[in-house]
Specification:
One of its GO terms (biological process) is cell differentiation. The protein is mainly beta. Among the domains are: about 80 residues, no CATH class; about 35 residues, Laminin (Ribbon). About 5% of the residues lie in helices and about 40% in strands. A two-stranded antiparallel ribbon has the order 1-2. A two-stranded antiparallel sheet has the order 3-4. It has a two-stranded antiparallel ribbon with strand order 5-6. Strand 15 and strand 16 form a beta hairpin.
């Protein structure tokens, strides 16, 4: 089986036919499936979509059970947690629906952890970290684009001279570089390359 465009989060099952891993969709399995929008809904109360998955949490006054359901709890109602709570040995503790969130100073609301600035996120070569609420993702560096080459997705250099996305003067030559470009005034002209006279 050959899939010309590849299957980003899935496997090739037949000529250009991808079988997506759970949590992903699209012709090349490159899109995150929003499980929170599915019918029937996967969570009893509230749902938070994550990259390739989802997290359930409960309304205030309820606590999340191991099977994902929400059970009424008088103690949780008194604590007033943002995302539901759990009771451990008689102690009530507020929960955050993602590992990328942490309990704030008040012990009831969740605040985002910026994985990009704390160094918790590791992005591969030519990719930069983008923080999201409760998570992060890796995006190609500026001057690079995601392309399917040699049976996997890579960030490859954009040739600004070919794509005409450079800002060189009409009287300059465009020279492509890794992740960028340079402008050099043609013979008989002088200047920065962006302005030639």
């Amino acid at each position: 089986a050959t899939c010309g465009h590849g299957c980003k989060y899935g496997e090739c099952m037949g000529p250009n036919k991808c079988k997506c891993f759970p949590g992903f969709t699209g012709k090349t399995c490159n899109q995150d499936l929003n499980e929170c929008g599915l019918k029937p809904r996967p969570c009893e109360h509230r749902c938070m979509n994550t990259h390739g998955s989802y997290k359930c949490y409960c309304l205030n006054g309820y606590m999340l059970m191991p099977d994902g359901t929400c059970a009424s709890s008088r103690t949780c109602a008194m604590v007033n947690c943002q995302y539901g709570c759990e009771e451990v040995k008689g102690q009530v503790q507020c929960l955050c629906p993602s590992g990328g969130l942490q309990l704030g100073p008040n012990g009831r609301t969740c605040i985002d952890i910026d994985e990009c600035s704390t160094g918790k996120a590791v992005c591969s070569y030519n990719r930069r970290c983008v923080n999201t609420f409760g998570s992060f993702y890796c995006k190609c560096q500026l001057g690079y684009e995601l392309k399917y080459t040699s049976s996997r997705y890579n960030c490859v250099d954009v040739n600004e001279c070919v794509t005409k996305t450079h800002r060189c003067s009409l009287h300059a030559e465009c020279l492509n570089t890794q992740g960028s470009f340079q402008c050099k005034c043609k013979q008989g002209y002088q200047g920065s390359g962006f302005d030639c006279a």
